[in-house]
Each structure stands twice: as C-alpha cells, then as structure tokens.
Write a structure and sequence with these properties.
The protein has 13 helices and 3 strands. The chain is mostly helical. A hairpin with a 4-residue loop joins strand 2 and strand 3. The radius of gyration is 24 Å and the shape is globular.
Length: 357
C-alpha cells in the first residue's frame, strides 16, 4: 500500500466514525449535524490534496471505471439504483445503469457503471455497500428478537408487508390464520399509539404494491436530501470549494466510454442507442417502440392511489426509515440509556478532530 493509500485509509476510517456518531441513537441533532459536516470537510480535504498531486503530475491519478452490483431484477430494482445514483453524485462520480445476464443466478442483474477518481470510487463503495444492505432490510424487515412484538409488527407493517406474512414471520402462523393477522393489527395499533401516530395501515384494504412503491421512493428521496444537507453544512462553515476542472475531467472520461450519454445541444434529435429503426427516420421522430408512452387509465388509477392516506403514510414511513440509516457499514445502533466507555472515548476523539486538537 502506497503512502497515499494509507493516508486515504485513515481519512476513510475517520469518516466512518463520524457518520456512525452522527446516526447514533444517543447523538443530539446539533451534534449529528456537526459530525456530518466534519465528514464532508474530510472528504473535501482529501480531494484538494489529490488535486495538488495532479497539478504536479497530471498522469499520477486518472478517472477509472468501476462496476458496482446493484441487484437482481425484481420489485425494487429501480429504487435500489436510485440509492446508488444519489450516492454516486454525492461522491463526485458519473454513472449509468447496465443490465447483464448471470448464468450463476439465472437472472438478469443490474449494475452501476461508475467513472471517477479512485478515492471517490472507494468512498462510493463504502457508502453504497452499507446503504444497500440497510435499504433492503428496511423494505423486507425480519423479526428482531431484541424488540417487542409490538415494535416488530410496527416495523413490518410500516414497510407495507401484508398481515398474514407478518404473522408467519412472527409466530410461524398459517397464511390463512385470521386470528394471528388480527393480532398483528392490534400490536401495530398499540405501537402507533405509543408513538403518537395514526394507525393508517392497521386493517384490511392495504394496496401493498402502491404503498411499498411510495415507501421505497420516499426513502430514496430522503436519503438524497440528507446527503445534500451534509454538503450544505460544509459549505456554510468553510465556503464552497471549487476544484477547477475535476468535475469536467470525470465527465469527459465518462463520455469517452459512453458517448451516447453526452448531452446533446438543445433541439438536436437523439435516436435511441442501437435502434436501427430510429436511425433510419429522417424527420427527427422515433420509431413506435421508442415514442413517449401515452397516459393510460392505469396511470390515472395509480395517480389517484398515490394520493390516498395509506400512500401518504408510506411516504412518511420511508422518510423515517432513511433518517435511521448509517452510511458506515455498521448495524444501526439501538437506543441505550447512556454511552458506553468505548462510545465516550470515540466521542472524545471525534470532537478533538473537529476542534483541530
């Protein structure tokens, strides 16, 4: 490992600790903002040092291509890519999606083709690995034996899981066990009452697909907002730092690999990549397969469902779930009455770093 790699590893470890403290259950909001801001400042500091090395020898470091696994084709593949896309933008990385068939998995799998500087790609790897794992767990929560039945039922029902599925996960009940499904609804209501929330999805009539779609995309949007706030926090304390040409160099490396992704001048016709029918058309229009899809009755029905109380509740639940995410690869911390000795020592070290001691 080079001296530069060792230095980045130390910075990455400090960023990991800062994000862990920012999202710890015992961390006050003001402290959390300070930790996230410091993490953003450390990211910037390393990028500035990297830019200084490039100024001396532009060939020292170049943007690279890296392939990230996003997931197998399934219900939530688009929101999963949404998480990856937002983290890539946060890390200063350009990306596009790509499908490939896996003989081992016997299914099509989605990948993120990311172009950026090595330090930014490593940071993206750290953050996305953790976020993808937690995002999946939030969408399909399993029973946690350390939590009460009320809290477990609340977590699963808030993710849009059907009552019969929850009862089966909780007690191994038959999928047709009405009594167990009723107990799920009872426990869910009790936990909502304890949290001061309206039990919108307690009973029957839950459109699971609409609810879970709203939940997932709300999660993605809330995560993007959280990342933007971290950047704005660093901007407000240290001023916006412009690394001249860095974004453009990454973009040019990306477009060199994927010329079809380069933005076209306003008004220019852009046929679908690889479509011979579109390429033959001389009037600038697209073939039938690539024309904008007309608004249908099904679209209208989905739009109406997205405005129901249950859909609105799903968006709130998704935002709450995103607020609990730790982007450091560590299992979300459970609330305790006081810090442990180890946590106190970590806190002292982090605040010493923030104060420059």
């Amino acid at each position: 490992m080079s001296a530069n790699d060792e230095k980045f590893a130390k910075i990455l470890d400090m960023i990991r600790k800062l994000l862990a403290k920012a999202d710890h259950a015992n961390t006050e909001p003001a402290e959390g903002d300070a930790f996230r801001t410091k993490a953003e400042e450390l990211m910037r500091k390393y990028r500035i040092e990297e830019e200084q090395a490039l100024a001396v020898d532009p060939q020292t470091i170049k943007p690279e291509l890296r392939k990230f696994f996003v997931g197998a084709n399934g219900e939530f593949i688009s929101p999963h890519y949404g998480v990856f896309n937002r983290l890539a933008a946060y890390c200063g990385v350009q990306c596009k999606s790509a499908w490939a068939y896996s003989d081992e998995a016997r299914s099509h799998q989605l990948y993120g083709m990311a172009v950026g500087y090595p330090s930014d790609l490593r940071l993206l790897d750290l953050m996305y690995t953790s976020a993808r794992m937690i995002f999946s767990e939030r969408l399909e929560p399993s029973k946690d034996n350390d939590l009460s039945d009320q809290v477990n039922c609340y977590r699963m029902r808030s993710a849009g899981m059907e009552r019969n599925r929850i009862a089966n996960a909780m007690w191994g009940s038959s999928m047709k066990d009405g009594k167990a499904a009723g107990l799920v609804a009872k426990y869910y209501r009790e936990e909502c009452l304890a949290r001061g929330q309206d039990p919108v999805v307690a009973g029957r009539g839950l459109n699971a697909k609409v609810y879970r779609d709203e939940y997932a995309w709300s999660f993605v949007q809330a995560l993007g907002l959280r990342l933007r706030r971290a950047q704005e926090g660093a901007d407000s304390t240290g001023g916006r730092i412009q690394l001249a040409g860095r974004e453009e160099r990454v973009a040019e490396a990306f477009y060199a690999l994927y010329p079809d992704m380069r933005p076209q001048p306003a008004g220019a016709a852009r046929p679908a990549p690889g479509c011979a029918k579109c390429a033959k058309r001389t009037d600038g229009t697209k073939c039938r397969d690539h024309r904008p899809r007309a608004w249908t009755k099904a679209d209208e029905a989905h739009a109406r469902r997205s405005q129901t109380p249950q859909a609105r509740a799903a968006r709130v639940a998704g935002r709450n779930a995103a607020a609990d995410v730790q982007l450091d690869g560590i299992t979300p911390a459970k609330r305790v009455d006081r810090y442990t000795a180890e946590e106190r020592e970590d806190t002292r070290q982090i605040w010493a770093a923030i104060e420059g001691k």
